[in-house]
Description:
Elements: E1 3-7, E2 10-15, H1 18-30, E3 39-43, E4 48-52, E5 59-66, E6 69-70, H2 74-81, H3 87-93, E7 96-100, H4 101-104, E8 109-110, E9 122-123, H5 146-157, E10 175-178, E11 186-187, H6 190-193, E12 203-209, E13 221-224, H7 225-229, E14 235-244, E15 255-256, E16 286-287, E17 292-294, E18 296-298, E19 317-318, E20 321-322, E21 329-338, E22 344-354, E23 361-364, E24 369-376, E25 383-384, E26 392-394, H8 405-420, E27 424-425, H9 434-443, E28 451-452, E29 454-455, E30 467-476, H10 481-484, H11 514-522, H12 526-532, E31 537-543, E32 551-553, E33 558-560, E34 570-576, H13 577-588
Parallel strand pairs: 1-4, 8-9, 11-27, 12-26, 13-24
Antiparallel strand pairs: 1-2, 3-4, 5-6, 5-7, 5-9, 10-14, 12-30, 13-26, 14-22, 15-18, 16-21, 17-20, 18-19, 21-22, 23-24, 23-30, 25-29, 28-30, 31-34, 32-33
Amino acid sequence: MKTDVYLKDVFIGQVDSPLEFLEKVKKERRENNLPSTLNIGYNKELNEITIETSKGRARRPLIIIDNGKPKLTDDHIKKLLSSEIKWKDLIKEGVIEYLDAGEEENTLIALNKDSITTENTHLEISPILIMGLTTSLVPFSNFGQSARLNRGSKAQKQSLGLYMANYHNRVDTDANILHYPANPIVNTCNWDVAGQANHPAGQNVVIALMSYQGYNMQDSLILNSGSLARGLARSTYFRPYSVVELRYSGGLTDQICIPDKEVKGYRAESDYKLLEEDGIVFPEAHITEEDVIIGKTSPPRFLGEVDEFSVSANRMRDSSVTIKPGEHGKVDMIMITENDEGNKLVQVRIRHERIPEIGDKFASRHGQKGVVGLIVPQQDMPFTASGVTPDLIFSPHSIPSRMTVSHLVEALAGKTGALIGEKIDGTAFANQSEDELRKMLGEMGFREDGTETMINGITGEQFKAKIFIGNMYYLRLKHMVANKLHARAAGRIQLLTRQPIEGRAKGGGLRLGEMEKDCFVAHGASLLLKERFDSDRTVVPICSSCGLIAVDDVFRKKKFCHRCGGNVEINNIEISYAFKLLIDEIRAIGVLPKVHLKNKY
């Protein structure tokens, strides 16, 4: 039976012996007779061979194994270290080749030299290459579960640190800077390769694994207020505001200035108190929400508004920039320049110091994320027999179901590293062994399992259980309560449905969903639903005879029905405007909905 061959998904012919053909193509590629970008795969079930040379495929390098021996020798490594040969020379020699997902299906890859058998076709350059760049920064990741590693990878991307050393001169949309970033005690070989040492994004903290009055249940964390006072996880949040002086047809232009009292939409005089003569706020000004930071006037929006004979001819309107609701801080930088079109551009950057508070999010590099549930005064925190107070208390219940053993091993390694004053290598599959770390701890007079006797800071009594305590690299994430707090009274509504608009940024309403409704009913507060669900309450006159929407003419003080006339009873009923809109839409498609009324009591 012949095997079909496809090149870039196009049928090009058939072969008698697929395995022989496969070997011949690979041999030719390794001898540089075929392009090195070519990959070949064989699907036994479908009995077809696919050859790929297309762009955009993910490919990775592997060492070729020939007759049970890797082609990369010690001689090659020496020459690489002395710069006699380069990476591309290894590819030319046929020592290393790049495989894509299709060709990898027909290989058996050994993790390391010790596990090579006669069946193996390739060898990993390093076992850590199984993981992506961010995931490879997770220490002791071979002790962790894959799903947690993915989350740990995501947490690192959301962490606060030093993203750029020149952040003072940049105007980034939404920037955070951690005040005292540190390099971890426990890290991996890829930490330096990735250049992370120049962009640290976390801090080494002392953590204790214990429950504390129930405030760290459900992944919550408890922080030591003494540590926060000394600058733990403190950060600054930067937000830019900008304005362009636009030019319009007819010679009209915007003006950046302090708006005149004659201007349409002029605010209260106190709103412009922070502006200097040029209409821009002064540096280091303390601003709160709704403060004007850049004064600006614009010509009328529509040409119809411009009337040569009008008393208020060509009247300008106020289009000043105010601080977003819920934000405050200090003016950090002001930049006056021109944009590409040559129009005046003013950028104002606001900064706000963020001290961790209840509800702020933290995470370790192992996907163990949680929010602050309580900030405890230092004197009430538990402490060890040697007087060490943890910075953070983490719940032990977060470990078993998630199987993040790497989290525990890092705490043990961090403790050892901090005590001996050395960094610990936590590279996956090539790390310092747990036994070694335990032995080192024991030699320093500590319990080798990382537990210590702890004393209750409130009662002064010794805890009956030994508490696991160690050092860990913790990340402060960008999800902060200050950016998410949202409340509103009456406000803007949508034109179509008359319901409150959506979104915190627009000052929208807070949706009360099905589950929230169930909570009110369960609490016996069902009358509260009457108040909550009338955001689009409307009163509609209904004809009691035919059930159609009637007319209530308030000016003529007449009530009548289009179908039945004025001799019928018209009742005003309360419905939601969304329902009234539905009735109108149903009528528009030719269906006549009727509302049947009955007595309430």
